[in-house]
Write a structure and sequence with these properties.
Blueprint (H helix, E strand, L loop, with lengths): L2 E10 L29 E2 L1 H14 L5 H5 E7 L11 H8 L3 E7 L2 E3 L2 E9 L6 E4 L2 H12 L7 H4 L1 H5 L5 H16 L3 E8 L2 E9 L6 E9 L7 H8 L2 E4 L10 E8 L1
Antiparallel strand pairs: 1-10, 1-12, 2-6, 3-4, 5-10, 6-7, 6-10, 8-9, 11-12
């Protein structure tokens, strides 16, 4: 059965730490998630799924299991492996035993691909986006495999507004994008007990104003089941992604760009 794909742009509103669980020995304690091939920052599909599920749950949506799946506990079937025990004894014992089953959701969540990073600028708002045209072309090619029809303007509207067709400007943006990739911000965090530092650590973040693209897919039609309702529920919403929610990290705006 054909898969319907809906694409979203993610604009990072506050610094994002979607952690990989890895550390850089002696320097950075907590690194961000990165694409296995390009090593660019990414947000794993599982992280996006978890963030959207939590948001939808908090909004009181009733179709969570259909979209996201679930794990449920059920009573285990009695199995009499001990011939000396009666069936009644085995049945009685099984009443206290449960097993977990996984119910698959109908939606697939793709990992988010980085499109652009902010770089400092000398006039308000004191930053501008930088990107690599070659990288964007590869993203367009990737999403064509999912029967989507998007353009550079869908990915980075600022590219068209800024007239980034000039080869010299394009190379400058590429260089700045690469520099920003090589120097993601690292922020010191501290755990205090009674005002005394107990644990100082350093974590990598994707800076606010960065932009990603990702897709969700469902079997069959976009109109089927609650898929369309799910898309509407998260479109143009600010949703928390990744760790450190209590200190304001990871607020992201999700905007549908296709269809």
């Amino acid at each position: 059965m054909a898969m319907d794909t809906v694409l979203f742009k993610i604009k990072v509103i506050t610094n994002l730490h979607a952690g990989s669980g890895d550390a850089e020995y002696g320097i950075v304690d907590k690194l961000v998630q990165r694409d296995a091939a390009t090593r660019m920052p990414t947000i794993y599909g599982s992280s996006i799924k978890g963030a959207l599920k939590e948001y939808c749950r908090n909004q009181g949506q009733t179709w969570l299991t259909e979209i996201f799946g679930n794990e449920e506990e059920i009573m285990a079937e009695p199995i009499n492996e001990n011939k000396s025990e009666s069936n009644e004894e085995v049945k009685e014992e099984s009443k206290t035993k449960k097993k977990r089953i996984t119910i698959a959701g109908k939606v697939r969540f793709l990992a988010a691909d980085l499109m652009a990073l902010p770089v400092p600028h000398n006039s308000s708002p004191y930053f501008r986006l930088a990107w690599d045209d070659g990288h964007l072309e590869k993203l367009l090619e990737k999403y064509q495999h999912f029967n989507t029809d998007i353009s550079f303007a869908d990915l980075i509207p600022e590219r068209e507004e800024g007239g980034n067709a000039n080869e010299i400007i394009s190379e400058k943006y590429k260089s700045e994008f690469q520099e920003a990739l090589d120097e993601l911000p690292v922020i010191a965090r501290n755990h205090l007990e009674n005002g005394i530092s107990q644990n100082l650590w350093y974590e990598e973040v994707v800076p606010h104003q960065s932009q990603f693209i990702f897709g969700v897919q469902a079997d069959g039609s976009f109109e089927a089941g609650n898929f369309k309702e799910f898309i509407t529920a998260v479109n143009d919403k600010i949703i928390q992604v990744g760790g450190n929610a209590t200190v304001g990290y990871g607020l992201c705006k999700f905007t549908q760009i296709f269809p």
